[in-house]
Known about the structure:
Bound molecules: guanosine-5'-diphosphate, adenosine-5'-diphosphate
Order of helices and strands: EHEEEHEEHEHEHHEH
Number of helices: 7
Low-confidence stretches: none
Shape: globular
Radius of gyration: 16 Å
CATH architecture: 3-Layer(aba) Sandwich
Strand content: 15-25%
Mean pLDDT: 97
CATH superfamily: P-loop containing nucleotide triphosphate hydrolases
Helix content: 40-55%
Largest sheet: 5 strands, parallel
Number of strands: 9
Distance between the termini: 12 Å
Amino acid sequence: MQRGLLIILSGPSGVGKGTIRKYFETDERLNLTYSTSMTTRKPRAGEVDGRDYFFSTREDFEKAIQEGGLLEWAEFVGNYYGTPLKEVNRLRDEGKNVLLEIEVQGAIQVQEKCPDAISIFIIPPSMEELERRIRGRSTEPEEIIQQRLAKASNEMKMVSQYKYIVCNDDPKLAAELIKTIILRHVELEENK
Ligand SMILES: Nc1nc2c(ncn2[C@@H]2O[C@H](COP(=O)(O)OP(=O)(O)O)[C@@H](O)[C@H]2O)c(=O)[nH]1
Ligand SMILES: Nc1ncnc2c1ncn2[C@@H]1O[C@H](COP(=O)(O)OP(=O)(O)O)[C@@H](O)[C@H]1O
């Protein structure tokens, strides 16, 4: 059996990663599984432990780092985020293509460890529109929004680290483009 692909989806907070993902992740042709991350961030209303994130304490997160349990991890605006390694390996060994939705520092770590990873960076149509989206979502207090926007400007400078760049103007179109990218790689893998 072919080992599954590793796909990295990154982009600034509020750009629409989660929104786009919902449009393509259920397409069976992609044979895709989302890797649930571990985080010390508090759950937002409606978020479910084990589905959206594995919500953890800083202590447990640091233990996971020390035990080598994370494929990558990063600190983002005051919280830890990381990808559980075992689960990613298990899914890929089963032939599943695994999708990581992670920020830039983590994406760089993954690309160093797995040079075959398919990395996609989502950009907003403009920084003003990014601000409108992050504010419109109303999930963070003003202070955190400011920090996330400052972070976004730096993250945008890292686009050259990615294989593909997709603009999220229309979310359905962005999802179609991502689907095309993944399907092309699936095809290439099958013809190897
Ligand atoms: N490095 C890394 N980043 C992650 C991981 N999980 C989520 N992130 C990123 O952490 C950032 C903050 O995530 P979150 O607080 O859920 O905010 P949101 O992405 O704006 O909804 C986003 O850029 C996520 O893509 C992970 O496992 N590792
Ligand atoms: N193409 C788009 N046009 C307008 N609003 C969008 C678009 N994509 C996402 N949004 C909105 O922007 C906000 C942030 O999207 P979200 O998917 O939570 O971003 P992320 O997962 O990257 O942090 C949400 O309120 C979402 O409905």
